[in-house]
What does this fold into?
Amino acid sequence: MASLTIKGLTKKYDETIAVENFNLEVKDKEFLVLVGPSGCGKTTVLNSIAGLININEGEIWFGEELVDAPQKKLFKIPQKRGVAMVFQDYAIYPHMTVYSNMAFPLEVRKVAPEEIKERVIKAARLLGIDHLLQRKPKALSGGQKQRIALGRAIVRNPKIFLMDEPLANLDAKLRVQARVELKKLQEELGVTTIFVTHDQIEAMTMGDRIALMNNGHLEQIGPPLELYQKPKNLFVADFIGSPSINMFQGNLVKKDKSIGIDLKFFFYPLTTKLSKSITDKEISKVVVGIRPENVLIVQNKKDGLFQANILRIEPVGKEYNIHLEVEGKPFISIESSADNWRQGDRVWITFAKDYIYIFDQESGDIIS
It folds into this structure.
C-alpha cells in the first residue's frame, strides 16, 4: 500500500488550463473523495495519478517513490504504477464470463493460472459474487456488474485504487447500498483510495476527507463535517450541503451607534468584536450565509424577527423543506413538522445566532 503526494500539478490542453498548481497529500489507507462541479479538473487529476495523461508541471509521489516529474524527465508508465481504476462505465467484456472478466488483467500480466484462480475466487467471495463466476454479464444486474468491475481491480492487489464516479449508473436505492458496501470493502482491504464524484452526498457519506475542487484549483480539504461547518469561502459553503446554504447580500451600516448588516428586509447587528474585525479589513459589502436547518419559523412576533411568505411546503420524508420568500429573495427552512403552516402564509423568521456565516462579497472569503 502507499500514500500519495501531488506537488504543483499543472495540466494544460493547448491554451486551456485544466488543473493549475494542484497540491494534495493522501494518507496510506485513506479514503479520499475528490469532489467538485463538472469540468473542475477531478478526472484530470485522477488520470494524472494513473499515468494516463502527461502532466505539464509538478511531481507525483507514491510513498517514497517518484512516479511522475516532467521537469526531471521522469515518467513511470501506468502498468508499472500499481494502481487499479474503476470507471463509471464498467467496461466489462460481454462475451466473457464473470471469472474471465476478473482474471483478464492478471492474464495480460502473465500471472500463473493457479494464482489467478486463487485471487479471483478470493475477490469474488469478498464481493459476494462467487456464485456468479460462470455467468455472462448480460444476465446480471447493474449492482452485480459494478462488483465485477471492483473485483477486476481488487485482484491486481494495487497500491492505490482510483475510482471515477463508479456508482453513477446505479439507481438511487442501489447507490445508497453500494456506498455502504464500497466503504466497508475499502476499510477491509486497507487500500489507499481516491474516489471522484460530483455528488456531494456521496462525498459527505464516504470520505475520510473531502478535497473540493473548482476551476482546476483545490478550494478546501478536510473531514466532511469540517467543510460543512467551517467553509473557507462562499464556493465551499454553497457546494457542500443539500439543500444549499441560504445566502443574502448586505451592506455594513451604522444604526443607533451599533454596526450591523443591512439586508434590506432586516438589520442584523454585529457583536463589538466582529464589527471591529470587519471594519479593520475595510469591508463594506458582505454575504450572510445560513443553512436551512438554522432558519427558524416562529409562531409569534418579537424583537429580532422578520416576515416572509411561504411559497411551497415540500415533504421529504421525516422533514419538510419550507420554501420562503422575502422581498423577492427565495430561501429555505428545514422543519420537522409543517402542521401549523400552509402555502401562502406570512410567517415570522429568525436565524439561529451561532450558525450564521459572513463572507466578503468581493473575494468570497469567510469573515466569521
Notes: The CA atoms of residues 59 and 309 lie 54 Å apart. The longest strand covers residues 16-26. The chain has two domains: 4-239, 246-360.
